């Protein structure tokens, strides 16, 4: 008699395996989603959209390369002192001129007529001063001649009195006649006293009046000279030697007084003007060395003025050239120049990037060893040139840092980087 054998039921059936696998998959998915949408603010980004730099150790060159523009060290505006119609053009724009060379001559008949009228008025005033001086001289001369006549009369009367005294004593003349002579003497002496007073009064103001007339004559002569020389202003001359630029006039054209005719650049000496990022405004100073290359030859200069006004994120510096100037420099040409800000030193280095503008260099996204997650880390950067920044704190050699722009992700706590 056979016995029935119990059939052993298998626990891990295909159905249960599939169920467990589904549960595990769901759990993994939930864990994965929690990374992206959980409490940690994360942002998924393609590696291709990031710039990642590695912290290295090396020599930090404390310099800065910027673009500079060539400008003349001296450039003088040529002004039209007396306008009119362009009558003659002696030099065209771009010509090399010497100081004093005539550039343009103007024709202005009304101005020339006005000058002639002023000359006449001034000459008339000078003539009037001469006549006044003659009248003053004649008045003083008349008083002195009058004094001479009075002295002569007094002497004559005194001689008559001396001759007639014996006759009076002998009774040959009357006392009335002697009294008349004495009365005449008193009168002439009184006249003499008044004349002396008049002469003293005239002399007291004579020098003052003559000095005033002389001063008036000097002013009138100076005015006359200025008026006559103003005719020369109809011809505009070069104030300095150099190259004539920005002059655009034609024969017959009308030009107004006190307007610009053009400029003259001194072509013997040039300077460089450079725009520098405002980040360096506290580190750029007068006297710092500058170097640049032209046609594979090195030249040097120095910063001789810093303009601290910041415009559109930059400020301007003026660079004086030391020694011989490169041949062929022209206004407006561009040169790459290197500003030497300080001494070089061994440092940790991080390539510059747009993240500087977003974080001020105070923190950065640093990749973990897997290279798939980047988290923000506080850092401290020091000096910076146009290529790298000096790392002072927060980063070690070999750390990988996201250096591209952080626009839109500055509040993220984690970057998830996908290939």
Written description of the protein model:
The protein is an alpha+beta fold and 419 residues long. The protein folds into 4 domains: 40-62 and 346-418, Beta Barrel (conserved putative lor/sdh protein from methanococcus maripaludis s2 fold); 63-73 and 269-342, Efflux pump adaptor protein, beta barrel domain (Elongation Factor Tu (Ef-tu), domain 3), CATH 2.40.30.170; 78-108 and 235-262, OB fold (Dihydrolipoamide Acetyltransferase, E2P) (Beta Barrel), CATH 2.40.50.100; 110-232, Helix Hairpins (Orthogonal Bundle), CATH 1.10.287. It is built from 4 helices and 24 strands. It has helices at 14-37, 109-170, 175-230, 355-359; strands spanning 42-46, 52-54, 56-60, 63-72, 75-80, 84-89, 96-97, 102-107, 235-237, 242-245, 254-255, 259-265, 270-277, 289-294, 297-311, 314-322, 334-340, 345-351, 363-367, 373-378, 380-384, 388-393, 400-402, 414-418. The strands form 6 sheets. The chain has a 6-stranded antiparallel beta barrel with strand order 4-13-16-15-14-17. It has a 4-stranded mixed β-sheet with strand order 1-24-20-19, with helices on one face. Strands 3-18-22-21 form a 4-stranded antiparallel β-sheet, with no helix packed on it. Helix 2 runs antiparallel to helix 3 (175-230). It is elongated. It starts with 13 loop residues before the first helix and ends with a strand. The mean pLDDT is 86.
Main traits of this protein?
alpha+beta, Elongation Factor Tu (Ef-tu), domain 3, six-stranded antiparallel β-barrel, 35% helix, four-stranded mixed sheet
